[in-house]
Amino acid sequence: MLGLAASRKTAWRLAVRTDEELIAEILNGETATFSELATRHRPRVERLCQRFFSDPETARDLAQEAFIRAYTALATYRREMPFGSWLRAIVTNLCYDELRRRRRRPEELVADFTAPEVQWMNLVNEATPEEIVAAAEERREAHDLANRLLDSLRAEDRTVLILKDSEELNVSEIAEIMGWSEAKVKIRAFRARQALRKQSEALRSAAKRSHR
Amino acid sequence: MEEKLNCFEARQEFRAFWRKELTSEDRAILVSHLAECAKCDRAFREFALSAPALHSAEEPPLRSPAERPAMRDSHSRRPAAVVRSRFAPRRGLAMSAAAMVLLAASLAAYFSVTTPIDTLNDELSAEPPATQLFGPDLNFSSEDLAG
Q: Does A136 touch chain B (CB under 8 A)?
C-alpha cells in the first residue's frame, strides 16, 4: 500500500517537473533525463521542421540534429528565456542553414501539376471559403502544392513567414532568433508576402487555363 | 444589426478561420464579408494555397494506396527538359568532380605503392660504382699512401 502511494507520488513528481528542473538534473550528470525533455518537446520541434521541409524523413533528421545541438549546448542555456523558445531558435537556425545549403531558387517552381493538384486549385478558385477549409484537411495535394509554393521562396522569406505566421512571433522576436535587424525582418516579411501573392496568382491562373 | 468587418480586420481573421478557432458567429461575419468583398475573397483564395503548409495544425493526410501510382505517374510525366534543368547541371558537375577525385586517388595509390619497391629493386641490383675508392676489398699499405 505504502509502495503504491510512493510510486504514485514519484509519478506525480515526474509529471510536474518543469523544463528547468530537468535541465538542472541533466547538468548534474543525469544525462538520461534528456530523453524526457526531448519527448516533451519533440512534437513541436518536428512540426516546426515540417514547416521548413515537407519531406518527413528530412524533418525528423533535422529534429534529431536539433536535439543533439541542444544537448551539446545545454550548459549555455539561461533561465531568462523559456527552454521551448531557446530550442525553437536552435531548430529555426538549423532549418534555415539547411534551406540555404540546398540553395532553392525561385525559378524552381515548375508549372506542371498532378491531376489532384489541379482539382485542388479549381476547388480553391470556385468553392466557398468554408468548403475550401474543410477540403484542405483531407487533401494531401493541398499540402504538397502549398509546400511547393513555399519552396519557391528565398530561404530568408520562407523563414520569416514561418516564424511570423505559423509560430506567431513578432518582429523583434524574429530579429533576435535570426540575428537580423528589425528592419530586415520587416523587409523580408513584406517581400515574402509579395512573392507568395505573385506565385499564388500564377498558380490560380494556371489552374484556370488548364480548366478550360 | 449584424456586426461588419473592414478589409484589414477580415484579413486578420484568415488564420483563425483556417484553424477553425472562430466562433460560429465570427465565422459567419467573415464569410459574409468575403461574399461582399471581391478583393478579400481573392486574398483568401491566395491565402488558401499556402495555408496548408503554414497554418494547418494537423499532420498532412497520407496518400491513399490508390493515389500512389497516380503520383508516380504524374512525376514520370514531367517534361524531361524540366527535370534536366533542375538537376542535370549539378549532377554533371558532381560526376566530373567524382571522376577527377577517383583518378587522382588511383594515381596517388599507384605511385605510393610502386615507387619504393622499384627504388629498392634498383638499389639491390645496382653494381657498386666503379669509382669507389675505399671499398672493403681494397687494402692500402703504408707505402701506397706514402708513394
A: yes
